[in-house]
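Lab channel / #folding
Pinned by the channel admin:
"Please post every new chain as: sequence first, then the structure tokens as a reply. Keep commentary short and put observations after the output so the thread stays searchable."

First post following the new format, from NK:
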Amino acid sequence: MLASIYIATYEILKDSIIGRIKDFYVTGFNENGEIVGEDYQSKVLSKNKSVLYASLDWLQESDAITDDDIETFNKVKQCRNNIAHEISRMLSEGLPKDFSDRFSDMVSLVSKIERWWIVNFEIPLNPEFADKEIIEDEIIPGPIAGLRMMIDVALGDDEKSKYYINEFRKNFPNHKFSS
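Reply from TO:
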């Protein structure tokens, strides 16, 4: 279960890194979906052959992350690769020794990147926040709230898990699923 949560969280992190930037460069929609502006190629993808590392470079140049954050990301990625490729061995030997540290690092990176987007783009574009004091550390980004919910459901006690299921049923009464 922990390995699955780690891999899912890694995908959330990748989306925060790649998806947010790509969305930033969307200029419209057509019958095929999103239209991504030419600036995405010249300002992001041109930085590296890997979309992931090109996006990390863009975030670093935008002062969203640092060299240390990229180094941390590389450790998180290595742990993810070990888990994904060695999961059958880990069933008998256990998770990597640095699992807990890497998981914490990953959650911190998601939070840092998402907060940067909120503080630098979402809040300034929303007139409801004009002249309001924003305490950055008190911002809980959507992916972090979703991650907390996922952990509560997967690893929490029955009461927490059932709370989310019951709330889902109240909000989506026509959805059929087994419990």
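NK: Residues 2-16+64-171 form one domain.
TO: also worth noting, The helical segments are 2-24, 38-43, 51-61, 67-85, 87-93, 99-125, 142-155, 158-171.
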